[in-house]
């Protein structure tokens, strides 16, 4: 590529889907582009479209990122041939479906090569180049599957979990060198790899907008779509609950799991010793709230309006629980005299 004063973005998986939408967004922002994918015809069509529409320089590099030799060639381009590198978007990926015992080993190896190995090597080359310039942005496309234990997509989900954790660690590691590194986790998105417009399915341009907003923050990872964030949070809570249950199982007596001695009586005694302080703290909190509510009603006194006294009485009843609610309903509760 010829030297230019415009910033340069390198995008893998740029022939379609999320990668192509990233290319269109960068072109609108005035970036020169290096588009990477296997399909030379699709890259030529996109490069010509963006060059004519936005007056930028769009070059292409055909490569199969499951091939180590071709990945090494692209790394060499980053190291030696690019005049500059301001942004890298690792959007290339593959998502084989199937139980692990029936998956083709070659397909599994190809998924690891693209989703993990190529992404890591290109990120490494970009970090070295960007640290020399003192600035740069790297966006790694992960998936909501990386936050979930996804049956029938176990290897794919694991590869995207790697992308998320790898990127989060790099974000902290390289922040002091002026680099902005983060991952974007789309959920169910309409792409050639995931065809069929299901209800509520996100579009590729929406994922790009999420990434564009995240670039101005310091978040090491973002999830595209509100419902996808909810699902990821729920799954995180389930994993934490599972870990807690495993820890509790480890404390069970020998009669339950063969790991501890002392029998069920000793186990019950340990549980009682653990829960008793918690019950005492909760009871103390309830009593303190009840005292505060009585003082608040007393300070209002006879000068309070009927509306204020009614609200305070109702609030106090809620604080005291069902007992206060019953007294209020039967009319046997009266406001104390002002102090």
Automatic annotation (TrEMBL):
GO molecular function, a single term:
oxidoreductase activity
Enumerate composition-biased segments (Low complexity).
Answer: 258-273, 299-309
Domain Ketoreductase, residue spans: 7-187
Q: Which domain of life is it from?
A: Bacteria
SMART domains noted in UniProt? PKS_KR
Keyword match Chloroplast: no
Q: Where is the composition biased (Basic residues)?
A: 310-330
Where is region (Disordered) located?
234-339
Q: Which PROSITE patterns match?
A: ADH_SHORT
* Keywords, comma-separated and alphabetical: Oxidoreductase
| Pfam families, sorted | adh_short
What InterPro entries does this protein's entry cite? KR_dom, NAD(P)-bd_dom_sf, Sc_DH/Rdtase_CS, SDR_fam
Q: SUPFAM superfamilies annotated for this entry?
A: NAD(P)-binding Rossmann-fold domains
| Similarity-based family | Belongs to the short-chain dehydrogenases/reductases (SDR) family.
Name of this chain's protein: SDR family NAD(P)-dependent oxidoreductase
**Which source organism does the UniProt entry give?**
Rathayibacter tanaceti
């Amino acid at each position: 590529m010829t030297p230019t004063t415009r910033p340069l973005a390198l995008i893998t998986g740029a022939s379609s889907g999320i990668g192509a939408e990233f290319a269109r967004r960068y072109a609108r922002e005035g970036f020169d582009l290096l588009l990477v994918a296997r399909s030379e015809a699709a890259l030529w069509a996109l490069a010509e479209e963006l060059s004519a529409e936005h007056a930028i320089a769009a070059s292409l590099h055909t490569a199969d990122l499951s091939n180590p030799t071709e990945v090494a060639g692209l790394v060499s381009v980053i190291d030696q041939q690019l005049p500059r590198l301001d942004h890298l978007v690792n959007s290339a990926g593959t998502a084989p479906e199937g139980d692990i015992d029936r998956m083709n080993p070659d397909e599994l190896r190809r998924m690891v090569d693209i989703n993990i190995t190529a992404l890591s090597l290109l990120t490494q080359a970009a970090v070295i180049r960007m640290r020399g310039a003192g600035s740069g942005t790297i966006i790694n496309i992960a998936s909501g599957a990386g936050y979930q234990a996804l049956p029938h997509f176990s290897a794919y989900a694991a590869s995207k979990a790697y992308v998320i954790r790898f990127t989060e660690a790099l974000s902290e590691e390289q922040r002091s060198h002026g680099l902005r590194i983060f991952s974007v986790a789309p959920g169910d998105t309409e792409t050639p790899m995931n065809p069929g417009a299901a209800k509520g399915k996100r579009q590729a341009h929406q994922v790009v907008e999420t990434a564009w907003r995240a670039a101005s923050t310091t978040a090491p990872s973002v999830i595209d779509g509100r419902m996808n964030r909810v699902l990821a949070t729920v799954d995180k809570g389930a994993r934490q609950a599972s870990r807690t249950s495993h820890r509790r199982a480890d404390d069970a007596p020998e009669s339950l799991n063969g790991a501890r001695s002392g029998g069920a009586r000793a186990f019950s005694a340990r549980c009682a010793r653990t829960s008793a302080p918690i019950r005492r703290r909760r009871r103390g909190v309830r009593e303190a709230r009840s005292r505060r509510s009585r003082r608040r009603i007393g300070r209002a006194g006879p000068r309070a309006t009927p509306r204020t006294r009614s609200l305070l009485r109702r609030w106090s009843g809620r604080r005291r629980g069902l007992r206060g609610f019953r007294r209020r309903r039967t009319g046997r509760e009266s406001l104390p005299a002002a102090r």
